[in-house]
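User: I'm writing a short methods note and want a consistent example. For Phosphoesterase RecJ domain protein, I'll paste the sequence; you return only the structure tokens, no commentary, since I'll be parsing the reply automatically.
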Amino acid sequence: MQFHSSLTQFERLPLTTDPTPEPNPDEAEIDKESLDVPQIRQSNGTLASTEGVNSLGQRTNSVTLQKSEELRQVMLAHRHERQLVILQDFPDPDALSSAWAYQLIAQQYDIKCEIVYAGTLSHQENIALVKLTGLPAIRCSVAALKSKDLSFYQGYTLIDNQGTTSGLVPIVQQAGIPLMAVIDHHNLQGDLKSEFIDIRPTVRATATIFTQYLQAGLLPLDNSINQHVKCATALMHGLRSDTNLLMQAKEEDFMAAGYLSRFYDAQLLSAVLQANRSKRVMDVIERSLKNRIVQNNFSIAGVGYLRYDDRDAIPQAADFLVTEENVHTAVVYGIVHDEDEELEVVVGSLRTTKLTLDPDEFIKEAFGQDSSGRFFGGGRTSAGGFEIPMGFLSGSNENSAYAKMKWEVFDTQIKQKLLRLVNPKDNPIQPE
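Assistant:
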């Protein structure tokens, strides 16, 4: 596989950029402790050298060591407890793999973690990742969590999100469960009160942050442990996914990939990546092609109503549309029906190859905030998404004429908000 072959170069490279010089017999022997090599104490009390992260640069190295030690202290303070690890409602490979790494780290301190998400896995690669690796993430709907006895949990942790994209967070907050840790690579979404916070927007993937934790000694990976190999494979997939095949990776992301290349299973990753698209996903892509409008190199497509389980077809359609000639940005959106809660939301995805377009700023400017000041969407480099509740107009789509009318209203409104930025001088909605 082409991706793996490019990574094999890392297997032959040391983790440090500068080669170790040959010892000079004329010089006095230097005490290694006097070199002040950064170290972090592992769960068993032993010290692990962190020379492997020195090549990330002095600043990154310092942050990694500091945050790794802070996390270790928090873990020590919460030994033998039980936690919920909450992901965004529709978790991606970066979130899934990072949560698994967190769970394995916590196990060393006898902390039992349950990885949960409220939505569903509909992207074929996400389904394959969980099934083929045995990744221990469980769907827990909002209704199911409300009926659960939450007194068993002494804390909860947010991985690859800050609580703004999960319907489970308000429930645990209402139950009075304290927030133990937030680990994410997205921009800060608001004021967070957590025992441990590691938010690094300059890093392209949360999987990179967790790989740095592993390198720093919080969990030394072992090729002989099958679970470690599978987790390393998942982290490689998460890192690869959030850096667009490493094309948007930064130095620390490349170094993390180099480290993981020693442990991951290339055949297993290949099997995950070769998962076939379902017919329903192909139908949504076809619908986006049929309905798209292209203006100023933006391709905008509404795909109508979607089943809850087919939500991940929207970003896949955006991935496809952005490959069209003379298109640098694609936005695809549709109305997704939540079968559990009888709610409907407008869900959209943005993909761009334009370096000067910031998806986070674009989406926030286009759709704004709700009454509580929470943005309807946001993004990162080259990608973004939005989710707009339909409120009073949710549900009751038995009447096809009414459903069609409702879609036309929302389709027109979304296009108007987008085209206001794409063509600010033009009126996107022409009067009859």
